[in-house]
Amino acid sequence: MIKAIALDMDNTLLNNQKQISAVNKKALKELHEQGVKIILCSGRPYKGLKPYLVELELLNPGDVCICFNGGLVETSKDQTKIASHTLTKSQLAGLYEAARSNQFPLDLVAENHVYSLVELGKSSYEERLGKLISFENTNFADVPEDEVFYKAIMLKDLTTAQFASELIKQSGNFHVTGSYPEMLEILPPDINKAVGLKAALKYFDLKPSELVAFGDEANDQEMLEFAGIGVAMGNATAKLKAVANEITLSNVEDGVAVFLQKISDQF
What we know:
Layout: E1 4-7, H1 9-13, H2 22-33, E2 37-40, H3 46-55, E3 64-67, E4 72-75, E5 81-84, E6 87-88, H4 93-102, E7 107-109, E8 113-117, H5 125-129, E9 134-138, E10 148-149, E11 151-155, H6 158-171, E12 175-180, E13 183-187, H7 193-204, E14 211-215, H8 221-226, E15 229-232, H9 238-243, E16 246-247, H10 255-262
Parallel strand pairs: 1-2, 1-14, 8-9, 14-15, 15-16
Antiparallel strand pairs: 3-4, 4-5, 6-10, 7-8, 7-11, 11-13, 12-13
Helix pairs in contact: 2-10, 4-6
């Protein structure tokens, strides 16, 4: 029996206009009212999930969301931390040196704030996130020593991302993933969405076999492999489709709702 649904956001639950379709919204609200746990699971900060939590009415006691690709698991209503995994400035020093030596930009993401290291060149990360989180243009030397970070971002172009990926792995103990081909997300070691979901399921006293998870990109792979049913969107990467148990329609075809209807007898 399925008792929980984990959902990546961009290009999975959201359409290309960053909206939840009426069909997807109806399907999720109905299941939530039946007691099924709906877990938004994203690389975004909490502020980036909050509008969708409101829209789906997921701000009740007991509702949980996962931010920063599994780095932070918290209650949706009052942001009580269930699990939190961060990096220190000293842990990121080698990464900064690799970025400086090889001329790729770097943004350091704290819980409610991003430090954009403009000495390395300004990336388009702030433009991409809009006003979901505040940005401060600064230099690495001026970043507070006691600050902690949920991830770092390298965003430039596909060629740079491919080149930088191996350098980043050599510069420190990190997990490197991405929600877009041209963007690398540098996380604490061994952190991914499956780690976040494991903490969430423990909080709910549920098993992975009672979970269905939806995703479209590389940073969803561990989550799909962890879930009892891992579902790749029709617009997912070929690699993700290869590890998924099921493939549904794309994010612009209500793929989430279509698959949930397909397995309606399992709820």
